[in-house]
Design a protein that fits this description.
Elements (H helix, E strand, L loop, with lengths): L1 H9 L13 H18 L2 E5 L9 H5 L8 E6 L3 H20 L3 E5 L17 E9 L13 H4 L8 H11 L10 E5 L5 E5 L5 H16 L10
Antiparallel strand pairs: 1-2, 2-4, 3-4, 5-6
Helix pairs in contact: 1-4, 2-4, 4-7, 6-7
Bound molecules: flavin mononucleotide.
């Protein structure tokens, strides 16, 4: 858990990468993760290597992406349950990639779909991609809301809950919207509600993972949503 907390603190979105292919070791480990998370989530995590076209478009240049040639495509039926899973398992991959010395960026809109490199079955859609590679820099800390803006209770909080919310505030969210609100219920369970905004269910999965790691309770934590 501590290791994952280090990854949470060190991770920032990186959009500019070195023109350097991924090492065989990194490819092998990313492949293992995509297989594991596909199995666990029921989504299809596909590692796309040496494919420069997705991030060679007006939107990507405008978004300041450079040298993105490797990415993970997450494919599945576009239900809100799947979008939450996409966030949860995708962020597991992001944090493990960070621990391996890689940089990442979740990308929902500023890229172009390249159908010929993807395996999309009937009824499925490309939900989102995660750019991966060796960053030109480590990225920068995002501006963040304060705990009181994202937690119903603000005083006399148990340490584990406070740590959970703080880890959630370090999470990537679409356009850094941070539209979530946690509450600690009388029975010790935790709820988290989202507002409206792009990719909000993906954000939800991401912040739940961060909360689980930050609180130190992992999957023992009981969500009451
Ligand atoms: C679901 C999701 C979708 C995102 N889509 C894009 C995108 O299309 N283009 C982009 O440049 N960044 C995208 N981002 C990255 C966010 O802008 C970034 O996570 C946020 O500004 C916080 O910064 P940080 O990741 O460095 O902490 C996305 C992030 C998430 C979680």
């Amino acid at each position: 858990m501590d290791e994952m907390m280090n990854a949470i603190k060190a991770r920032h979105s990186v959009r500019a990468y070195l023109d350097k292919p991924l090492s065989e070791e990194h490819i092998g480990r990313l492949r293992m993760m995509t297989e594991e998370y596909s199995r666990e989530s029921g989504l299809s995590f596909q590692l796309i290597l040496d494919e420069p076209k997705a991030f060679d478009c007006r939107m990507a240049h405008y978004g300041k992406f450079s040298n993105v040639k490797n990415y993970i495509a997450i494919i599945g039926k576009k239900t809100s349950e799947n979008e939450e899973k996409c966030g949860y398992y995708g962020e597991k991959l992001v944090l493990n990639a960070q621990l391996m010395g890689l940089n990442t960026c979740w990308v929902a809109s500023t890229y172009k779909t390249i159908p010929e490199v993807l395996d999309v079955q009937k009824g499925e859609k490309l939900i989102i991609v995660i750019a991966v590679g060796y960053g030109e820099s480590k990225g920068a800390q995002h501006k963040s809301k304060e705990l009181k803006a994202v937690s119903k209770q603000t005083e006399k909080l148990p340490k584990w809950y406070q740590n959970g919310v703080e880890a959630a505030l370090l999470a990537p969210t679409a356009i850094n919207q941070q539209k979530f609100k946690f509450s600690l219920n009388d029975d010790g369970t935790v709820s988290v509600k989202t507002g409206f905004g792009p990719c909000i269910k993906i954000d939800l999965g991401i912040v739940k993972l961060h909360f689980e790691i930050g609180s130190g309770r992992g999957r023992q934590l009981v969500w009451n949503n």
